[in-house]
Amino acid sequence: GQNIDQPTEMTATEGAIVQINCTYQTSGFNGLFWYQQHAGEAPTFLSYNVLDGLEEKGRFSSFLSRSKGYSYLLLKELQMKDSASYLCAVRDGPGTYKYIFGTGTRLKVLA
Amino acid sequence: DADVTQTPRNRITKTGKRIMLECSQTKGHDRMYWYRQDPGLGLRLIYYSFDVKDINKGEISDGYSVSRQAQAKFSLSLESAIPNQTALYFCATNETATQRLHEQYFGPGTRLTVT
């Protein structure tokens, strides 16, 4: 079966660092994506991993371990505007370009 | 102007009515998708299309149908709406070109309420 797990909610303080974990079990794997979604708005692309290791993009980094079926999104120097849901998505198999989404992690950043 | 647009943005309809949600994109992408989002359930794929002649069912296609009228347009229909189809619906696009990330671009969403 297809399963992606993320924590439902997390809370952190402005200026801090937060790590949002994602574990997955899918029949195929061709990349893992992280999206940010503010309440009532469309998801927007944050990061992509297809090989093991860390990808850094400004205040955001994403890590992947394919053997463990595990990824995390690291947000540094948290700002109030980072309060949003963060969606982990796995692209299923080569060439199909179907995406399986987790339920999302709602992050609250407190002053 | 937005690259992916959806109409209507909000719709309230009654049980048993037929309703169509429309999606248009100016990104020139060949692949288009329809998702619904429910609290606690995340985004679930309804239908997807890899080009005008290719339509595929997603994980929750029952009660829905789609039409790919052109590369830029992908419509979702609810033939006979029921209350548990109340949700936030998103259209998304991406491209097939190699050496690209193939990230999806989402429309602003349609909030549908079936009473």
Task: Compose a concise summary of this entry.
Helices cover 0% and strands 58% of the residues of chain A. Chain A is mainly β and 111 residues long.
Bin the helical content of chain A.
under 10%
Helix % of chain B is under 10%
The helix-strand sequence of chain B is EEEEEEEEEEE
SS strand fraction of chain B = over 45%
Whole-Å distance between the termini of chain A?
A: 41 Å
Oligomer: heterodimer
pLDDT averaged residue by residue of chain B: 92
Low-confidence stretches of chain A: none
Task: Give Rg of chain B in angstroms.
Answer: 14 Å
The termini of chain B sit apart by: 33 Å
What structural class should be given to the helix and strand makeup of chain A?
mainly beta
How many strands of chain A?
11
Our Rg estimate of chain A from Cα atoms comes to 13 Å
Helix/strand order of chain A: EEEEEEEEEEE
Principal-axes shape call of chain A: globular
List how many beta strands of chain B DSSP finds: 11
Could you describe the largest sheet of chain B, including whether it forms a barrel?
Answer: 7 strands, mixed
With helices defined by DSSP (H or I, 4 residues minimum), what is the helix count of chain A?
0
Q: Outline the low-pLDDT stretches of chain B.
A: none
Return the average pLDDT of chain A rounded to an integer.
Answer: 94
Tell me the major beta sheet of chain A. Answer: 6 strands, mixed
Description:
The complex is a heterodimer of chains A (111) and B (115). With 111 residues, chain A is mostly beta strands. In chain A, strand 9 (84-92) and strand 10 form a beta hairpin. In chain A, the strands form two sheets. In chain A, strands 2, 4, 5, 9, 10 and 11 form a six-stranded mixed beta sheet that branches. A five-stranded antiparallel beta sheet of chain A has the order 1-3-8-7-6, with no helix packed on it. Chain A is globular. Chain A is 0% helix and 58% strand. Chain B is mostly beta strands and 115 residues long. The N and C termini of chain B lie far apart (33 Å). Classes of the chains: A mainly beta (111), B mainly beta (115). Chain A binds chain B through residues 8, 31, 33, 40-45, 48, 87, 89, 91, 97-104, and chain B through 31, 33, 35, 40-45, 48, 50, 58, 90, 94, 96, 101-109.
